[in-house]
């Protein structure tokens, strides 16, 4: 049976839908809120803001994270900023423009109504964060400062030095800790969700492993919220933190939640190139650097001169050349692909020729070293620390790296997955970014979901569905907990020789080579053959030492790699099935004569939603057609 | 590079630990310290021995997970650097390096190099926030904030909560951590209404967790990867004294909080 996909987009004009929907949603009486228990998995921007807000409203909240503290989630690493349609700069910004930019930036593969709501609530997010004491950058007059960011021609990005994600997360974390202190949220740190319990067509709770004692535990609730992030680490090398994984969303998928557009991944154009074979991750340099840095490579292939020795007329500022109106500020997918093309032409710089220059020479001449230091000081320090080079003196070298995933669990307008009672927020859902996310929009979406959308919509669900009534010792919980315990035992029992990481590296290489910045049928089919082989090898030859009844990081890692090995297949299948190029999904078979992405709206203007059919069985595809009432699909042009 | 490593191994809390010696060959100067540890662990797994447990995540110096005392210094020898951002080019071929966990009574060892830092969360939960519910905020530009105040507030807010200040302090004091949060929030107009209550509650919780007091060694500032200055501690002491003597505090005591 195919999935039933009802997006529940409200009727009425685009700019009235959310207002109308908020009024139409049923309310839970304040006195009744404390009868409902909500589980929030993840304490990043989306999870922490949701957990704190739900507790403020009066719900009983259990919040889970595998970290030692709610403040560690990878949202913390976002550098550049957060968008909001405040128009404080008087440069013509508006809710409509942010909405328009986001739909267009996503290459017309996002759901319009969700995007409009995102743009609407963006302004309230800034207000909320300011009130929490987030130390945003200020002008001398005391007002909030803004900067511009890729994919936009207005300055709508708010920032706190190069640590915007950190400061927003600390705001949400502090709001959450306030509720913990008040006894409204029970925080479960070092607890990893292993599965969702679904019974009678409704999410009833989760099963976790206590990472310190190894105890497998069941938790019942009236609704479950996943804010568990994206799956960029399927590539092994990505800018994501090491622990980021697909387990929570993948396990929910296996319990009936549709997985939408898994092939939509974002490759960020400005990461530090990998310099040695033992590199464990890539490090992002904020794209805000492109405001002042100019991207170039030598005109001639194989030019090995030091950058300073290459005169201007022998440099190719290829983004400025190809895209004169957006220049170095083209969206991420466009910038990444352009870098790949010049490197494929043999014009890349640095070891292995996989790098391009990001040069601040002209900006330093124009505004001075001190101003550049003020704007990007910590990023320059980080670069110098990692590479041993001084970016004030020599141009940075950058290269694209996996960074964000637009795909995720399918959700309706209420952020509910195809499993009733299971909500998904932030990067974990398939979200509002279509096939490509604009810079400074991830923080916006995470906080929009957590502070201003989910707290309303979950009330509508609970008011209708009532309490769950199923306790954590019910048979449904016991059987899932038993499966989790058995899987853990099975991982520990494989009499193998190889570390979980070694399989992860092997999988990552296949994914990067065949399902990375550019994809084609032959490569994807090759990947579909290789992934099951690696998976099979994993279950025969992985070596997980130690026991399951205490802290065992190798065991945690093995479980996550096992899930990546299952997930990778549907990601590749989705990339193979989507016979078009759009946003971050570039199929080499579908491009213009100038090498730009060629969309196929006739056949692929839809969300591809995959349904789990069981181990060894092909997943089933259901499509949610996308209609564009306001922003009519056009060929994206940044020329 | 070839190195000799002495690493702290401990089965669990309350179990005696010991230093374990490892000869590490083939270290590249471009590796981070944690990538060198990955190399050690990869080899341990191959040899059928349990890898060294250590905390890490973003490996970009911002999440605050990583926590190792390297050659006696929290986060190692390089200034303003978390151990994940410490690169092996800082060391020489043939060096002997000791690696230990954070050591403080309030940070019990969980396993090997992993310690329990939940005490810091409880200090924040006591008062490290502005009490503003979602949805009740005025326009972001309604209250002007002097740029200088926002900048100093950001200096303090840069704290990543790693606990190196505690590990470096001979008294295992969490004064720099607590003072940074007090300075971040109390300096902004949004934080002022709760300023007195905040500093009293956070200091009280800090003491209850078993952290020591500050006796001006300034080791915390030396170890801090974000270079949070100790003047925030002086500020906190002033704020605490003022708060303890104020009429508002007396009223708060009467009302049963603070």
Tell me briefly what this model is.
The complex is a heterodimer of chains A (639) and B (258). With 639 residues, chain A is α+β, with helices and mostly antiparallel strands.
Structural class of chain B: alpha+beta
Strand order of the largest sheet of chain B: 2-1-5-3-4
- Biggest pleated sheet of chain B: 5 strands, mixed
Question: What is the first-to-last residue Cα distance of chain A?
Answer: 45 Å
Low-confidence stretches of chain B: none
Assembly level: heterodimer
Q: Count all strands of chain A and give the number.
A: 20
Overall residue-averaged pLDDT value of chain B: 95
The computed structural class of chain A is alpha+beta
- Amount of beta strand of chain B: 5-15%
Helix content of chain A: 25-40%
Spatial separation of the terminal alpha carbons of chain B: 55 Å
CATH class of the largest domain in chain B: Mainly Alpha
Return residue spans of chain A where pLDDT drops below 50 for at least 5 consecutive residues.
none
Largest interface: A-B, 82 and 80 residues
Q: Overall pLDDT of chain A, averaged?
A: 96
Helix-residue proportion of chain B:
25-40%
* Largest sheet report of chain A: 6 strands, antiparallel
- Helices of chain B, by number, come to 9
CATH topology of the largest domain in chain B: Fumarate Reductase Iron-sulfur Protein, Chain B, domain 2
What labels describe this entry?
heterodimer; A: 639 residues; alpha+beta; Flavocytochrome C3, Chain A, domain 1; Methane Monooxygenase Hydroxylase, Chain G, domain 1; 6-stranded antiparallel sheet; 5-stranded parallel sheet; 37% helix; globular; B: 258 residues; Ubiquitin-like (UB roll); Fumarate Reductase Iron-sulfur Protein, Chain B, domain 2; two-stranded antiparallel sheet; 9 helices; elongated
Task: Describe the 3D structure.
The complex is a heterodimer of chains A (639) and B (258). Chain A has 639 residues and is of the alpha+beta class. Chain A has helices at 17-24, 30-33, 45-57, 95-105, 112-132, 164-181, 247-254, 318-322, 332-344, 361-367, 369-387, 442-465, 475-493, 500-515, 521-541, 553-577, 601-604; strands spanning 37-41, 60-64, 82-83, 157-158, 185-188, 191-199, 202-210, 216-220, 223-226, 259-260, 265-272, 283-284, 294-298, 315-316, 356-359, 396-405, 408-409, 422-424, 606-611, 620-625. Among the domains of chain A are: 270-401, Flavocytochrome C3, Chain A, domain 1; 483-625, Fumarate reductase/succinate dehydrogenase flavoprotein-like, C-terminal domain (Methane Monooxygenase Hydroxylase, Chain G, domain 1, Up-down Bundle). In chain A, helix 5 (112-132) crosses helix 12 (442-465). The model of chain A has no long low-confidence stretch (mean pLDDT 96). Chain B has 258 residues and is α+β, with helices and mostly antiparallel strands. Chain B has two domains: 3-110, Ubiquitin-like (UB roll) (Roll), CATH 3.10.20; 118-255, Alpha-helical ferredoxin (Fumarate Reductase Iron-sulfur Protein, Chain B, domain 2), CATH 1.10.1060.10. In chain B, the strands form two sheets. Chain B has a five-stranded mixed beta sheet with strand order 2-1-5-3-4. A two-stranded antiparallel ribbon of chain B has the order 6-7. In chain B, helix 5 packs antiparallel against helix 6. The longest helix of chain B is centred in the C-terminal third of the chain and has 15 residues, at 231-245. Chains A and B meet through helix 3, helix 5, helix 6, strand 12 and helix 11 of A and helix 1, helix 2 and helix 3 of B.
């Amino acid at each position: 049976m195919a999935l039933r996909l009802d997006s529940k987009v409200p009727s009425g004009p685009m700019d009235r839908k959310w207002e109308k929907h908020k009024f139409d949603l049923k309310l839970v009486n304040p006195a009744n809120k404390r009868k409902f228990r909500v589980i929030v998995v993840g304490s990043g921007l989306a999870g922490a803001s949701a957990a704190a807000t739900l507790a403020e409203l009066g719900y009983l909240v259990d919040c889970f994270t595998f970290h030692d503290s709610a403040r560690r989630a990878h949202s913390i690493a976002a550098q550049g900023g957060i968008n909001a349609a405040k128009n404080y700069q008087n440069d013509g910004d508006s809710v409509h423009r942010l909405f328009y930019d986001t739909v267009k930036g996503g290459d017309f593969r996002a759901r319009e109504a969700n995007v409009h709501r995102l743009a609407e609530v963006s302004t309230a997010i800034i207000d909320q964060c300011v009130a929490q004491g987030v130390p945003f950058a200020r002008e001398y007059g005391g007002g909030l400062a803004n900067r511009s960011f890729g994919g936009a021609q207005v300055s709508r990005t708010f920032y706190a030095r190069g640590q915007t994600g950190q400061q927003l997360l600390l705001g949400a974390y502090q709001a959450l800790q306030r509720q913990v202190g008040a006894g409204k949220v029970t925080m479960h740190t070092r607890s990893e969700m292993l599965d969702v319990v679904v019974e009678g067509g409704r999410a009833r709770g989760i099963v976790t492993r206590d990472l310190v004692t190894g105890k497998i535990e069941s938790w019942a609730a009236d609704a479950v919220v996943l804010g568990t992030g994206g799956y960029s680490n399927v590539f092994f090398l990505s800018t994501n933190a090491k622990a980021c994984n697909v387990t929570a969303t993948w396990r929910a998928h296996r319990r009936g939640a549709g997985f939408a557009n898994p092939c939509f991944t974002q490759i960020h154009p400005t990461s530090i190139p990998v310099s040695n074979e033992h590199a464990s991750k890539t490090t992002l340099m904020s794209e805000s650097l492109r405001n002042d840095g100019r991207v170039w490579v030598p005109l001639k292939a194989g030019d090995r001169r030091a950058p300073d020795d290459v005169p201007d007329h022998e440099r190719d500022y290829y983004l400025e050349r190809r895209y004169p109106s957006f220049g170095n500020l083209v969206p991420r997918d466009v910038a990444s692909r352009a870098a790949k093309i010049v490197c494929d032409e043999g014009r890349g710089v640095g070891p292995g020729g996989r790098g391009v220059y990001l040069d601040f020479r002209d900006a330093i001449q124009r505004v001075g070293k001190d101003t550049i230091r003020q704007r990007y000081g910590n990023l320059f320090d980080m670069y110098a620390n990692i590479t041993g080079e001084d970016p004030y003196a020599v141009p940075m070298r950058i290269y694209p790296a996996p960074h964000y995933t637009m795909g995720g669990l399918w959700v309706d307008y209420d952020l509910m997955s195809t499993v009733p009672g299971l909500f998904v927020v932030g990067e974990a859902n398939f979200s509002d970014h279509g096939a490509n996310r604009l810079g400074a929009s991830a923080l916006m979406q995470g906080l929009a979901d957590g502070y201003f959308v989910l707290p309303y919509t979950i009330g509508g669900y609970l008011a209708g569905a009532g309490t769950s009534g199923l306790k954590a010792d019910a048979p449904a919980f016991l059987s899932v907990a038993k499966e989790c315990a058995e899987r853990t035992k099975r991982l520990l029992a494989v009499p193998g020789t190889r570390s979980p990481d070694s399989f992860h590296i092997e999988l990552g290489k296949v994914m990067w080579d065949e399902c990375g910045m550019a994809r084609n049928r032959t490569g994807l089919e090759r990947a579909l053959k290789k992934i099951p082989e690696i998976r099979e090898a994993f279950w025969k030859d992985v070596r997980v030492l130690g026991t399951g009844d205490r802290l065992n990081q190798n065991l945690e890692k093995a479980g996550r790699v096992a899930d990546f090995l299952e997930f990778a297949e549907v990601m590749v299948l989705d990339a193979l099935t989507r016979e078009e190029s759009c946003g971050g999904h570039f199929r080499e078979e579908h491009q213009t004569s100038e090498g730009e992405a060629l969309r196929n709206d006739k056949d692929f203007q839809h969300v591809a939603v995959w349904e789990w059919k069981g181990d060894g069985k092909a997943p089933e595809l259901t499509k949610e057609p996308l209609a564009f009432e306001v922003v009519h699909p056009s060929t994206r042009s940044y020329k | 590079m070839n190195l000799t490593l002495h690493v702290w191994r401990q089965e669990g809390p309350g179990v005696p630990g010991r230093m374990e010696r490892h000869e590490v060959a083939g270290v590249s100067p471009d590796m981070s310290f944690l990538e060198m540890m990955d190399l050690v662990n990869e080899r341990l797994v191959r040899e059928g021995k349990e890898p060294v447990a250590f905390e890490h995540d973003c490996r970009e110096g911002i999440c605050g997970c990583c926590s190792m005392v390297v050659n006696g210094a929290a986060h190692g020898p390089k200034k303003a650097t978390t151990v994940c951002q410490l690169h092996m080019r800082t060391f020489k071929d043939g060096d002997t390096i000791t690696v230990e966990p954070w050591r403080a009574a309030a940070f019990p060892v969980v396993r090997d190099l992993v310690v329990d830092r939940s005490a810091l969360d409880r200090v924040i939960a006591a008062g490290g926030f502005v009490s503003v519910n979602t949805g009740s905020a005025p326009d972001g530009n309604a209250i002007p904030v002097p740029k200088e105040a926002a900048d100093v507030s950001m200096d303090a807010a840069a704290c990543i909560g790693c606990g190196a200040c505690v590990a470096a302090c001979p008294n295992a004091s969490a004064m720099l951590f607590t003072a940074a949060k007090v300075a971040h929030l109390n300096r902004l107009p949004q934080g002022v209404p709760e300023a007195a209550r905040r500093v009293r509650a956070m200091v009280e919780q800090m003491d209850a967790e078993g952290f020591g007091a500050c006796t001006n060694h300034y080791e915390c500032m030396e170890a801090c990867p974000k270079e949070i200055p100790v003047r925030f501690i002086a500020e906190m002491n002033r704020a605490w004294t003022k708060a303890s003597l104020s009429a508002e505090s007396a009223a708060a005591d009467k009302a049963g909080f603070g």
